Amino acid sequence: MKRIPIRSKRGRRGVALLYSLLASFAVATMVTGMFAVTFSSKGITEVKVKGGQARYLAEGAIEIAKNSVQAAIANWSVPGNGTATINGTQIPYTVTATGLNTIDTDPSGIQTIITGYALEATVAQNGHTYTAHRLINARATPVFQFAVFYTNDLEINPGPSMVLGGRIHSNRDMYLNSDGTLTCNTNYVRAVGSIYRNRKDDASISAGTVQIRNWVQNPFAAGAPVYTQMNSISQMASHGVTTTSGYDANFDQDIDLNNDGDYNDPNEFQSWALGALAMWAPAPTYTTAYGNTVMDSAHGVTEAEVPYIGSIKMFEPVTGGNYAWDVPSHSYQAVAAGTGTHAKGYYHSQAGLTIITNGAGTSWKAYDAAGADVTTPLKNAGVVTLKSIYDARQAGSSSNSTKVKVTEIDVAKLNTCGYFPANGLIYASSYGASTGTNAKGIKLKNGSQLAGKLTVVSENSVYVQGDYNTVQKKGAAVIADAVNLLSNSWDDSKNSSSGLPTASATTYNVALISGNQDTVGSAYNGGLENLPRFHENWSGKACTIKGSFVNTWLSQYATGSWLYGSNRYVAPNRIWSYDTAFNTVANLPPFTPMAVTTSDAAVW
Q1: Dihedral sign, CA of 65, 67, 68, 69?
Q2: Is the pLDDT of residue 342 over 90?
Q3: Pairing state of beta strands 404-410 and 209-213?
Q4: Which one has a higher pLDDT value, 88 or 46?
Q5: What pLDDT shows up at residue 37?
Q6: Which of 293, 334, 478, 532 has the fewest CB atoms within 10 Å, measured from its CB?
Q7: Which of 429, 422, 404 is nearest to 479 (CA)?
Q8: Strand 454-457 vs strand 425-430: parallel, antiparallel, or unpaired?
């Protein structure tokens, strides 16, 4: 505190006189004040409470506005003004672009688009007005620049050893476990919730080895990686430490055996919040930069917004749409602008080629980007065939012989018929989809070579048969209610009593966005290792996937529960990796969605 100098005795006498007068005044008013405070304190409290309510409502509206910016960008919309409803109070807010629009590129080449917005919300309540302001930066990263991206709990529990390269993210909790060795060769293991070293369906199981790369500036650069184990229950016990689930978000001890202030000695561990940062920091020999590989809610990881499942719907309900349900045709038909109840879903509206099958699975129509009917030329070229296949997971039991109706697209014939979509987007779906064997499906075959970059989207299940995008590899994606992989040996002969057909080694160079089910209690959803669904005996056979693995919604139709063995499938040797070509934006599949986060730049 700054001291005020006293320069003379006269000055000191003046100060003393002032203090004396103040003291006299204080005594004279003390009794009056004692009575007055009784009556005024209640009013002051009410002013503070009412003023505080206005402030909290305005700041709450700003948080809702911030979330709306994330959702809008993730779903290909322009963020705009809106109204927040909090405890029944409607609060308008404004969203204004600040002009900040730049691209941030990290050392490995991953690019993030940064856009600035100014948010404002004003609340007038009980005679009090408060305006909240905030500047935010929205960071949009192509979702296929993640090796693994989940909006729900991410469970990784492979039987055989498995290596994952590239960024691994969950908007909820992450569970890491393995019967063999799970290796995460990445700079980025993040969970908005918590990271656990056990199975979600059985918290007592903390098995195998999980090793995660220590941070380096460019994880894709050549060089021998340095890994640090994320210890299981038994591995921690070997250090003399009893834990709930190993070294993870549950670990809240500081074990400094010699009390020297560090945790570098044998059998010493720091609690998770700080210990995880230190454990997966750069190796001691790495000095060019600094970062941390493993982070969760204890380290402030924030949620990344992604498109919701409506984006893959054939039609979405809207007020004043251009389509309405037509009972005689059992389909949505165009109506006068603004008089309908539905609009095309995002991918349907953007498609360069659309293939729609009727509910009975007996006929189909195709349209180009301009909406012109191209059914006849595609039919003459043999591009589309209507058939059915046996999906034991959807059938639910070996006694159910019903097959799933699918619309089969011969990609090789599409390549040469003159109607391969110029913008690289195919939307294909069937009316009348439901659960079980009524889930409906789209099947892609003969897709080893693509005429151009290609994204195939469906609100149904998609089945990819045989080598896909292996000749002159291009950016490719499949986005569906569920993605199923069929080997080169698949011939549609499987039925409820045939037993498992034998798979053969097959390679898929494709990014996947697939629905899944939640693990509930002891009912396991199959984890990341079974996000793409299998239907054959892959024992000893290689399933090679180079791309990205994304789960952003629960399956709406393909809701059959995961089950291993029986007439479902036997797992392959999984050779799965992130496609580093996706580090370059020009190589991404068409219409790659964005994962959007926001951060505060200024608040007042």
Answers
A1: positive
A2: yes
A3: unpaired
A4: 88
A5: 38
A6: 334
A7: 429
A8: parallel
Which residues are bridge partners to 82 per DSSP?
93
Q: How far apart are CA 75 and CA 70, in angstroms?
A: 9
Q: What are phi and psi of 55, to 5 degrees?
A: -65, -50
Give the pLDDT band (50/70/90) at residue 49: low
Q: Which amino acid is at 188?
A: Y
**Which tens digit of pLDDT belongs to each residue from 170-225?**
999 999 999 999 999 999 999 999 999 999 999 999 999 999 999 998 888 888 89
How far from the centroid of its chain's Cα atoms is residue 388's Cα? 32
Query: Tokens for 336?
Result: 């006068």
Q: Render pLDDT for 223-239 as a digit per residue (tens, 0 to 9).
A: 889 999 999 999 999 99
Using the predicted structure, report yes or no on whether residue 551 has a pLDDT greater than 60. Answer: yes
**Percent of the chain whose pLDDT exceeds 70:** 92
Distance between CA 157 and CA 522 in Å, rounded?
Answer: 14
Which residues, at least 6 apart from 349, have a Cβ–Cβ distance to it below 8 Å? 343
- What is the Cα–Cα distance from 208 to 156, expressed in whole angstroms? 12
Q: Are 455 and 550 in contact (CB under 8 A)?
A: no
Q: 578 vs 447, 508, 510, CA distance in Å?
A: 20, 12, 10
282-314: pLDDT as tens digits: 977 777 778 999 999 999 999 998 888 789 999
Residue 9's H or E segment, with its range, is helix 9-74
Q: Please, what is the average pLDDT of the chain?
A: 90
Integer Cα distance of 592 and 585 in angstroms: 10
CA pair distance 331, 129, nearest whole angstrom: 51
Across 411-527, the runs of DSSP E, i.e. the strands, are: 425-430, 441-445, 454-457, 461-465, 476-480, 482-486, 506-508, 511-514
The Cβ of residue 478 has, within 10 Å, a number of other Cβ atoms equal to 29
Q: In what order do the strands lie in the sheet with 154-156?
A: 154-156, 174-176, 195-196
Secondary structure class of 57 (helix, strand, coil): helix
The type of residue at 358 is N
Length reported for the chain: 604
Extended strands (E) in 87-226: 89-105, 111-125, 128-142, 148-150, 154-156, 162-165, 168-170, 174-176, 181-185, 189-191, 195-196, 209-213
